Amino acid sequence: MNLARATSLIAAGTLTSRLTGLVRTVVLVSAIGVYAAGDAFYVANQLPNTVLTLISTGLLTGVIVPRVVAVSAQADGGRVFLPKLLTAGASILMLATVVSMLLAPWLIWVLANGFSDEQRALSTAFAYWCLPQIFFYGMFALMGESLNARRIFAPYAWAPVLNNIVSIIGFGAFIVVFGSDRSDLVGWTPTAVALIGGTATLGIVVQAVVLAIVWRRSGIPLKPDFRWRGVGFGGMGALASWTFGMVLVTLFAGIVQVRAMSEASGDNVSVTVWGNAWLVYMVPYALIVLSIGTPYFTRIAEHAAAQRDVALREDISAAIRTLGLFVVIAAAALIAAAVPASRIFTNAAADALLAAPVLVAFLFGLIPMAVLFIIQRTFYAYGDTRTPFFFTLAQGILVVALTITAVATVPREHLTASVAAVQTLCGIIELLLAIWLLRRKLGPLGLRRPTLALVRFVLAAVPAGALGFGVYVWSGGATGWMLANVFAAAAGTFFICAVSALVYLGILAVLRTPELATAIGMVRSRFSR
Q1: What's the pTM value of the predicted model, to 2 decimals?
Q2: Which InterPro entries match (predicted)?
Q3: Same-domain check for residues 223 and 315
Q4: Which residues of the chain have a pLDDT value below 50?
């Protein structure tokens, strides 16, 4: 499958997944709100989500994907190795799930010590329903990344759509049975808890089953195989030891962040708003960075395996420039539309005004995180998980130190936005360190051209975003029609982003930006398919 075709499939699936995911979140917020009960569910449901993130960005991307790429090129296409890999992964995930469920009350206490006793009790009840997601999330990520490495991209991108549909139906049923905006901690019966938590887990089960069907139809046996001796797990374990270190660093930093924000839970924006802002941030990240960057990563891994260093550097430059053209305007447009975009995931205009700074703080990190995606995965392509551990460690130490400082110095109403800003600042520092370390490893990376391209994109995006924000002000701002309800907020967000994008494209066309033609060709290719 060529790069354009793969990117098109991933982008289409990712877009559909993200849009249905936004609808899912809107229905969930309508059901349980964004304050006390919403925070309790968020913390419980975040436990398996954290496992997915750590597995997908750490062990799978850094260790397993390069190995699967190598074995897929063998005569048997990996049909001997992959069932053993799946069996080993399933065994580890099952053990992790059982242990997590036994430790559920302690895990909730660790993550949300700032909760009241009643809020922790509700969060623990949710956790018993949500923690089985660890197994199914892990299997979904393991099968999906393995299929990606074999150039079967579409199922991994499209399966979450079914998850979102299941969740929309389940959360909608909760509203019908128990009512809406159940932020209060009073009246949460076991049936109500089971409907919210069980729905969230059922959706994950469905998407994992879809990939299991695709896995079997791809010709890879779907059966347990415990004959692990001599297949290279030992070497993978050595690489995974550094990845496990990254897992611990990231996990500890995340715990500190959630514990800090739990101090603000109740009357102020807290972990639910943080999670919803992250969801909006992840729409352009997933649609642009993952859909374009994932096929590039597969090619970079192939270049590294064949020692084609010149081609690898060219792909790094091309990937950064292509990603940059899209993510720069995405960040600028969403910053301009931050208030109406936040209104989509809140139940009142006043809540949106409080939530918008959290989203803005995340969005300033979109550009550096897009570049870091390519830089980090270049290390992984060379089988190097040791170096990423060190720049992740540096980032984690900074996050912890600055988050603790924020708790001690920032008023509770601004605490969540401050933690988000800390995340972005530390991510930028991590990127600079990663680039320096990669240059020491490979020599000159040829980053002058993509850096100049990013500067041009930013110069074009600033006036485009300013005009988009002007549209928000012209509509009435905080008292205007864009904040009247969820549907008006969605329309306002779209309008602001569309205006910003058109101005941005016009400026790039006047400047005769060379990357624009490539981007237009890529978009045409997607729509033609």
Answers
A1: 0.78
A2: Lipid_II_flippase_MurJ/MviN (IPR051050), MurJ (IPR004268)
A3: no
A4: none
